[in-house]
Amino acid sequence: MRKLSFAYETSLSFSAPVTDHRFQLRCTPPTLPQQRICDLSFEMDPPCALHTGIDSFGNPVTVGRIADPHDRFSYRVEGIAFVDQGLQRPAPYKPLYRYPSAFTQPGPALLAFAEEVRAGLAGRPWTTAPLEQAAYVMGAVHDRLAYRPGSTTVRTTAEEALAGGAGVCQDFAQVAVAVCRRLGLLAKYVAGLYDAEGATHAWFEVYQGGAWHPLDPTNNCRVGDSYVKIAHGRDYGDCMLSIGVFTGAADQSQTVHAVVRNA
Amino acid sequence: MPDTLLHGLQPLIERRQSINEDLARDGVRFGIYKNGQFHEQIFPYDPVPRVIGADEFDLLARGLAQRVRALNAFLRDIYSDKQIVRDRVIPEDFIYSSSGYLPQINEVMPPAGVYAHIAGEDLVQAEDGTWVVLEDNLRIPSGASYPLIARGITRRIAPEVYAANHVRDNRDYPDLLSEAMDFCSCGGIPVILTPGRYNAAFFEHSYLAELTGAALAQPSDLVVDDNQLFFVDYAGEKHKVGVVYRRISDEYLDPFCFNPDSVIGVPNLISAYRAGNVAIVNAPGNGVADDKGIYYFVPAMVSYYLGEQPLLQNAPTYLPLFDRDRAYVLEHLDSLVVKDVAEAGGYGVVFGDTLTRDQLADLRDKIKAEPRRFIAQEVVRFRDLPSVDAAGNPCRRMADLRAFVLTGEDTRVWASGLTRYANEPGSMVVNSSQGGGFKDTWVLSR
Predict the structure, then answer these.
(1) Is there a contact between A51 and B274 if contact means CB atoms under 8 Å apart?
(2) What CATH number is given to the structural domain containing B367?
(3) Cβ–Cβ pairs < 8 A, chains A and B
(4) Alpha-carbon Rg for chain B in angstroms
(5) Are B49 and B444 in contact (CB under 8 A)?
(6) What CATH code would you report for A90-238?
(7) Is some CB atom of chain A closer than 8 A to the CB atom of B259?
(8) What is the pLDDT tens value at each position of chain A, 263 positions in all?
(9) Nearest to A95 among B96, B106, B224 (CB)
(10) Residue B220 touches partner A, C-beta closer than 8 Å
(11) Residue A113's closest CA among A166, A182, A202?
């Protein structure tokens, strides 16, 4: 068990005022068996009426609309998390997570890579448990992809990232998910925060023994107690931390800052 | 039905040309995209109706209502417990690999529990008189306005024809639609949402709005505020919407939930729907139930959910995914019709008897490589109907029937429907996008 303090802040600034700004945020970590969230605060500027619900994957979602002209839009989430990955509770079997999704649809690169991984696993007949197989996939993905910020966008699919040979945490996670599913494992994409200061993070989970086990392919390690989960789903598309549309001919620039520390 | 029973049809046949001109003037067209260009085409009207006797229609209506009740039960189940999968009546693959299955709206029970408020059931009548269901259209079935407006025109030309032949009035479609919309409304006005005039069925959207009194809205007229859907009128006033009959497909409905590139959707609409603040007609996610592969299982759904014998049959269908079916399909390919489950509008339909040996071998390889992608059916030799050709001479054309089944508090079948006929003698492809026309469907009152 660790006690973490986390803060996550996004701010958008527009070169000219925009109106009719509609948005949807997944930015507040939920309380889960393995993470207890306390003292959660959420601030938004400009202030507006917000509605919070839970989406079909179980993620908290906040929606709203700012009708009046504004040239900046920012929100900040902070709180305390007690995290212990050992407290995972049994979760129902969901075949959904064995099927390809929009961002994890295999193409030639993924099919070939999955076959390589399958051959590698065939040489390790003792690696039979889903979690061990997923850990092997994680290692293979970590070796195959170079970590290179800017080489992909949030819209890059697992297939495209793999074909390009580089990406960021989102790509590492999606390629790992795609390969796991190809091998018949149930795998989920996860978005969240961890104790490296800066941006948000992404990893994946694999289903074994009635519970989900998190793995971090970007760092090639098991997810420990310094990770705060925000959202999960089939792929990035289900876990977008923020999406919005507005009216106005303006350029926008965005800064994101995330921090997780021992509290 | 001997043609001689149609009393007084002659004036309508003689005025075929002017009726078609009236229809065109009223905007009865359909649009298609060809090479990236939008074209509007006349949907040719043939004044010789399809006639369905009173007893025959009652039987048909009971079968259709039963089928749609089962499909609604299936959708409620699939988006909650998925008991039919757990009980191994339907393999999970048919749900999870269906592009129409939307996990984003899992566990969201639509207001009033109805998914398919408007079902367009495509049927043909086999040569022995049996009605056979070819397709269930549960997403945005269009076409009800064509027979409605055609009947309006012909009733003005020859009002006595309908009384003399004891034809049931079909002007209740807007009432059936309004009742279905009102029943699931969460409080507020009804709205028909159209993507705009460059949509194949724009004429129908505006026509139905006019007949039901619903506000006709384009995406920019709707806004979600306080997690509720509002219609913004010409003066900028906001009106709460209780039910939206949307004519925009699921994929484009809400960019925050489905395709983020959609510019014709309403951002956060699904959030308002999830909160129970607005009903969406038809509910999102219905594509999992009208998938060409799922069709195979609909008779099984009737017995599974309703505990009843299905009153209506499917065309004999084979799923290459199942070993035994695949063996049959590969052996009898030259006498079957093969459909690509991902295609619609008459595309991706191949009649085995039209293929060369090489093409057959090709298709066999495709089926072996991707068995889930195809279904195969026995060719149903269906009845042709009396018609008049462009020169005014009697002829016969193959025709199908799209029946409309509406569900509000209960499930009812409209005593009319869209009969589409093939352009060419002997052809069985009746899709309007393939050049076919339509005729009125008379349901007799006795």
Answers:
(1) no
(2) 3.30.1490.270
(3) 58
(4) 22
(5) no
(6) 3.10.620.30
(7) no
(8) 999 999 999 999 999 999 999 999 999 999 999 999 999 999 999 999 999 999 999 999 999 999 999 999 999 999 999 999 999 899 999 999 999 999 999 999 999 999 999 999 999 999 999 999 999 999 999 999 999 999 999 999 999 999 999 999 999 999 999 999 999 999 999 999 998 878 899 999 999 999 999 999 999 999 999 999 999 999 999 999 999 999 999 999 999 999 999 98
(9) B96
(10) no
(11) A182
Phi-psi map region of A214: left, alpha, beta (phi>0 left; psi -120 to 50 alpha):
beta
Residue where a domain stops, chosen among B359, B378, B397: B378
Residues B42, B165 within the same domain = yes
Task: Using alpha carbons, list the distances in angstroms from residue B371 to A80, A105, A122, B289, B427.
Answer: 51, 18, 27, 19, 27
* CA neighbor of B420 nearest in space, from B33, B45, B13, B29: B45
* Residues B334 and B251 reside in one and the same domain: no
What would the CATH number be for the domain defined by A2-85+241-262? 2.60.40.2250
Q: With an 8 Å Cβ cutoff, are A243 and B255 in contact?
A: yes
Taking Cα atoms as reference points, which of B116, B81, B124 lies closest to residue B100?
B116
- Neighbouring residues of B342: CB distance < 8 A, sequence distance ≥ 6: B99, B348, B373
* Residue given tokens 């917000």 in the structure block: A50
Chain B residues with CB-CB distance to A243 below 8 A: 255-256, 260
Is A171 in contact with A158 (CB distance < 8 Å)?
Answer: yes
**What domain count does chain B have?**
2
Q: Alpha carbon A237 to chain centroid distance?
A: 10
Tally helices (H) and strands (E) across chain A.
4, 14
Q: Can you list the alpha helix ranges (DSSP code H) found in B7-157?
A: 10-14, 16-25, 54-78, 83-86, 93-96, 145-157
Residues from chain B contacting residue A97 (CB–CB below 8 Å): none
